[in-house]
Amino acid sequence: MQRRQFTRLLGATAAAATLPALIPPVQAADPLKIGFIYVGPVGDFGWSYEHDLARQEAAKHFGDRIKTTYVENVPEGPDSEKVLNDLANQGNKLIFATSFGFMNYTLASARKHPDTFYEHATGYKRAANVSTYNIRFYEGRFVQGVIAGKLSKSGVAGYVGSIPVPEVVQGMNAFMLGMLSVNPKARLKFIMINSWYDPPKEGDAAKALMDQGCDIITQHTDSPAPLQAAAARGIKAFGQSTDMTRFAPTTQLTASEDIWGPYYIKRIQDVLDGNWKSTDTWGGFATGMLKLSPFANMPDDVKALAESTQADIKAGKNKVFVGPITDQSGAVKVPAGVVMDDGALNAMQWLVQGIEGKLG
Amino acid sequence: MTEVLVAFLVSTIVASTPLLLAATGELVVERVGVLNLGVEGMMLAGAIAAFAVAHLTATSTLGILAAIAAGVLLALIFAVVALTLQANQTATGLALTIFGRGFSALLGAGFVGIPASPLPKLRLPVLSDLPVLGPVLFSHDVLVYLALLLLCLVAWCIRRTHLGLIMRAVGDSHDAAHALGYKVLAIRYAAVAFGGALAGLAGAYMSLSYTPMWAQDMTAGRGWVALALVTFAAWRPFWLLIGAWFFGALMYLSLYVQALGLSIPSPFLSAVPYIGTVVVLVLISRDRRRIRLHRPAMLGRPFQSRT
To answer: Is the minimum CB–CB distance between A224 and chain B shorter than 8 Å?
Structure first.
């Protein structure tokens, strides 16, 4: 190649390089990149599975206007910050961190990438570019508790717990309050398996609870194993995060279903419109973020009671955490008539009277 | 009280079975001087193969056979890379686990959320109806008995047979075994394949019996526990059995104690099976000389024929 030709080529390249700066970019050409991180595998048929269904729903809704990426099995530790940073560096402008334990790492990553928007599920720390969103799972737990209180012959239910973070504590307390509302002598035993996902251990925990006389099982872990373990012994149980009827058609009473799709679509739309703001969303039955699978395997009167309880919560007539509420020591935690506020709910680290065992 | 005891013993046997299967296989592999860290990956491959085939053909026996095939297939990949091509065994084994996790997840994507009917439990006429002994000993599925049978066979083979002598020779000094005319590589291939088959069976037990479903990463680290058991049992089959039972028992007890409502922190209880098993196995094999005696001297070392 001669020198003149080379200079010409150089000039042409330079012109080509400056050209895009002059012409405004066509919007359709570069889709909005969106990242998701999951604590478990998308195949857990529970928590992460529901988040991924919602991601797919959003991808379908927006078509080629967005491009989604997900990373599964992200441990709730310093590694999660690395994954979040990677996603931001790859040009994802909106990132959903979908587990409580990602909280501090999401904030740390957000500080390093001020132009990226972050959405953290189930946490309580926000920043200019970090929003939080959550579902009022406890509303569903209360209804479950009412059903359990009605159906349990021994008056003792079992709760397969994961890690005693406020969300899980709220769940146990709401379940207990639901049971107490129909059976003042009811009790609740629980086991924390210290993991969100470990099918054999989840199942074993359910067995250990049944071995101690629990005749209704509910779970706060991510696989259908506890439900299966209950089904194997002919004991009724609740599904978790998603409708698990298929795993135990004659066992599942109902399941709390997490409905994340509409929220994801709304937040993505906000980014596309340039309207994204840091917010705190905590929706329940009323906003459609929480659903209960069809009530099954229970007598009609219990079903009717469950339905009316759910309707009351949805209408705001029943706020679930309404005093008087006494804790395990017998001390009144919430005076009569007082409704606990969201701040107190999110810091909940005590157990309602009737629950056996201590938080680890 | 009897009911609790029965529940405890049954849970112990169930929880120890996948560990026992995988660890028995790995014991054979390590006894011939090969370290295959891919147990977790082979278990997952076995779990999805068993579930998928059992679901598609509605025959659990075919599922079990598929699990064996999947385990052997992955083990052979390991053998080609680590034994023939002599790549580092530790790295190859780790890679196999990563591969097994990812590949099983890929194959399993279409099988998530499908229930399966568990393996049938054996019902023996009189024996299964005995109080306590019936439910504890005589009403498990076929894989539980197979696990115990295989362990006894392996123990007998290693200790009492000519084949066992050859295996030990290959594991302790492959050059000497080679000089005596034994086909070191062929024996190691066979042992690795056997280990894969048993890891596959362990996976089948997970997805067809323990929790009859497919869920990604459903073994949740049990392959690693099996590997650790082999080392802490100092490569002796019956101590492996004690280790597996002990682990299974502590696993159940740690959950049971929590439900009793004693104020012991749950993270500590979760750690108890691991700590407890290590302590017990270290105590029973505290004799250094014994360990040196049983540890295959060629463990993890590649064999190169110089002829």
So the answer is: yes
